[in-house]
């Protein structure tokens, strides 16, 4: 009786391994394991993206409020960033709440930036791109004040980025800005915004938002933006802002 049981056990194991090797059982299990692993990787990447969004929005909030108020240009840009990067209303509301929370506390900028480096595993080049994009926000109203520059230095120190690298990028934007400092005419403003001269204030605002969304660099995908692309984006965005302000003043 024991011999028969042993023989049946051997046959069972033989069938087990033979089946795995020849039919879809083994490939199905392998496929499940592969899919499970890929799913875990995607879930981890998704989590890192969420964390990155959180920290970038937090730092943007501090830069925007560093001079005591969030300007219309800064508010518009933040709104565009949230629209472009939040996957759904729930995430957008979370990021908006993050912005509101951090804009009211600008004194912990170094701590938040250092925490960013610990929570999100980016290469130095990517942290440098994030810093460059924060510089872009600091210039969005046209001028870099002392408080914004001080905060950018704190963020650079937290990111292990040298002051030389930070200074080079600030000077790059400043030089482009100064090269295009000639006063803009109304005709140029309408041309830049691709707007009819009889357009209303509402039409002006709508067109401004369309162009701003089209041309501003995507802050929350900073690793896809080169220094040259960012500088061109800054130049284009400043022209759009200048044209908008000029026509808005004319329309009262």
- Uncertain runs: 1-26
Architecture of the largest domain, CATH level 2? Orthogonal Bundle
Q: What percentage of amino acids are in beta strands? A: under 5%
User: Which whole number gives the mean pLDDT?
Assistant: 77
- N-to-C SSE string, H for helix and E for strand: HHHHHHHHHHH
Derived structural class: mainly alpha
Give the end-to-end Cα distance, rounded to a whole number of Å.
102 Å
Number of strands: 0
InterPro entries: DjlA_DnaK_co-chaperone (IPR050817), DjlA_N (IPR007791), DnaJ_domain (IPR001623), J_dom_sf (IPR036869), TerB-like (IPR029024)
Domain J: 188-252
Protein name: Dna-J like membrane chaperone protein
Q: What does it look like?
A:
It is built from eleven helices and no strands. The chain is an all-alpha fold. It has two domains: 1-22 and 34-180, Orthogonal Bundle (TerB-like); 186-251, Helix Hairpins (Orthogonal Bundle), CATH 1.10.287.110. The longest helix is centred in the first third of the chain and has 42 residues, at 24-65. It comes from Campylobacter avium LMG 24591. Pfam families: DnaJ, TerB.
SSE layout and pairing:
Blueprint: H1 2-22, H2 24-65, H3 72-85, H4 89-103, H5 109-119, H6 124-138, H7 146-158, H8 163-179, H9 186-192, H10 201-215, H11 227-251
Helix pairs in contact: 1-2, 2-3, 2-4, 2-5, 2-6, 5-7, 6-7, 6-8, 6-11, 8-11, 9-11, 10-11
């Amino acid at each position: 009786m024991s011999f028969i049981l042993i023989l049946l056990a051997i046959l069972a194991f033989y069938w087990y391994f033979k089946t795995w090797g020849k039919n879809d059982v083994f490939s199905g299990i392998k496929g499940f394991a592969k899919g499970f692993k890929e799913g875990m990787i995607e879930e981890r990447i998704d989590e890192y993206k969420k964390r990155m969004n959180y920290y970038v929005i937090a730092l943007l909030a501090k830069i925007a409020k560093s001079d005591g108020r969030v300007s219309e240009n800064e508010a518009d840009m933040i709104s565009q960033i949230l629209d472009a990067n939040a996957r759904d209303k729930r995430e957008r509301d979370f990021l908006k709440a993050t912005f509101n929370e951090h804009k009211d506390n600008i004194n912990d900028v170094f701590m938040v930036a250092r925490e960013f480096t610990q929570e999100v595993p980016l290469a130095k080049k990517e942290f440098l791109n994030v810093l460059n994009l924060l510089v872009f926000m600091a210039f969005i109203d046209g001028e870099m004040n002392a408080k914004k520059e001080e905060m950018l230095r704190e963020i650079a120190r937290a990111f292990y980025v040298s002051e030389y690298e930070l200074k080079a990028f600030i000077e790059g934007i400043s030089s482009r800005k100064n090269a295009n400092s000639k006063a803009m005419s109304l005709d140029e403003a309408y041309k830049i915004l691709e707007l009819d001269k009889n357009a209303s204030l509402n039409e002006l605002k709508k067109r401004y938002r369309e162009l701003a969304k089209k041309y501003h660099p995507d802050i929350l995908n900073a690793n896809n933006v080169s220094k040259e692309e960012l500088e061109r984006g800054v130049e284009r965005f400043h022209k759009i802002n200048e044209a908008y302000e000029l026509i808005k003043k004319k329309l009262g």
